[in-house]
Amino acid sequence: MLYHWLYPLSGSVPLFNVFRYITFRSFLAFIVAFVVSLLWGKRFIALMKLKQFGQSIREEGPESHKKKKGTPTFGGVFILGSTFLACLICGNLFSFPLLLTLFVTASYFFLGGLDDYFKVLLKNSKGVSARQKLAWQFATAILASFVMVKFNIIDTKLYLPFLKDPIVDLGWGYVAFASLVIVGSSNALNLTDGLDGLAIGPTITSAATLGVLAYFAGHVEFANYLLIPHVPDVGELLVLAAAVIGAGVGFLWYNAYPAEIFMGDVGSLSLGGALGTIAVLTKNEFLFVLIGGIFVIEALSVILQVASFKTRGKRIFKMAPIHHHYELKGWPETKVIVRFWIISLIFAILALATLKLR
Ligand code: 57M
Q: In percent, how much of the chain has pLDDT > 90?
């Protein structure tokens, strides 16, 4: 809104010219989201405690998790609330990439919120069924991807890291591919969200990396120089990424071990959806496997564990997702968390390094 209100006045007030710059508005979005998330978080936790909206803990899980019973959840409400507010204040609301990413995020926010509502408030442990969740996730992702292709917001070609030319043009098939990336990202982040701060750490590193990539892809000269596809208007996603980082750091203040609040599905499904959509809109679908490497490893551990158990009757890991495996091996929870953060940081640096190797 500041962009829409103040930038047009820059003729008479030259200072307002700064609102033209995505970098300036991103910095502002980070500050707004961080401060709102930090201040709102404190009150939100107190409210959740008062209402006794706490997490129930599965019996079959690691012993160390039993003491987490009753920890307030729904933290995603103030993460995403602060993110949306920061985008509203600092973003260019005429940017289609920004609007589409906010659409997917809001839709998954609603889905996750409904699931948490059933699980926590109605004490229905199953929440929304897996099938219903997938149907909603795919419907949203297909609609968003269709709009991207139909209105030529992005092309339908696939680009691999290290190669400057696309490998194949999927045509309308790209809608299915993009939807898989978005839904996969949402669910992988959800699986990662099982230890204090474990999901928000890699969310912050991934958002930072994707934000930088969005800025480059949206800038015609940088894109040409780096030999990456140029996507008009996509630079605005740096504002969203910065808002996610700010809100995420504010949330981490409370979610750091020992957590005072969990983000809930309302947070994990929507943040995963947001990252997946940014990866698609910046044409980094494959590089996202590296950027969000922690999410990929967590999801793969579940797929392998379930496949192995079904076909051979044996487990590969002591428990999946893989963070439980390390917990059961005796690593303290904080060691697993910080080591996973370190790995996600290394993945982010490696991903950015690929920019110069084309
Ligand atoms: C949700 N959520 C946590 C919190 C958070 C297919 C199967 C692998 C699915 C998987 C699953 O359901 N994963 C998705 C993971 C839960 O956290 C809540 O859920 C939200 C995220 N959706 O925000 O509201 C628990 O995680 C812990 N937690 C923290 N700190 C945090 O900041 O400590 C969460 C956030 C919380 C808290 O204990 O209660 C969850 O795990 O439920 N299922 C599993 O993860 C289960 N694994 C399993 O069944 N493995 C089998 C399969 C693969 C064959 C195996 O390996 O043999 C385990 N989950 C748990 N205990 N909790 C089983 C044991």
A: 82
Give the single-character DSSP code of 4: H
* Closest C-alpha among 284, 318, 322 to residue 300: 322
Which atom of ligand 1 is found nearest the CA of 197? Answer: 32
DSSP letter for each residue of 196-221:
TTTTHHHHHHHHHHHHHHHHHHHSHH
227-252 pLDDT, tens digit per residue, is 999 999 999 999 999 999 999 999 99
CA 321, distance to chain mean position in Å, is 18
- Tell me if 320 sits within 8 A of 338, measured CB to CB: no
Is any ligand 1 atom within 6 A of the Cβ of residue 58?
Answer: yes
Domain that holds residue 245: 2-356
Separation of 72 CA from ligand 1 center, angstroms? 15
321 lines ligand 1 (CB under 6 A): yes
CA 189 to CA 137: how far, in whole Å?
A: 14
Distance of CA 16 from the midpoint of ligand 1 (Å): 47
pLDDT(124) > 70: no
Q: Tens digit of pLDDT for each residue in 252-266?
A: 999 999 999 999 999
Overall number of domains in the chain: 1
Cα 17 to its chain centre, rounded Å, is 31
Instruction: Please give the structure tokens belonging to residue 358.
Output: 């084309």
Ligand 1 and 287: CB distance under 6 A: no
Structure tokens of 255? 């979610």
Phi, psi of 92, deg, nearest 5 = -90, 105
Segment (H or E) for 157: strand 157-158
Strand partners, 72: 54
- Between the alpha carbon of residue 63 and those of residues 57, 60, 194, 334, the distances in Å are 10, 8, 14, 15
- Closest Cα to residue 110, out of 333, 289, 265, 277? 265
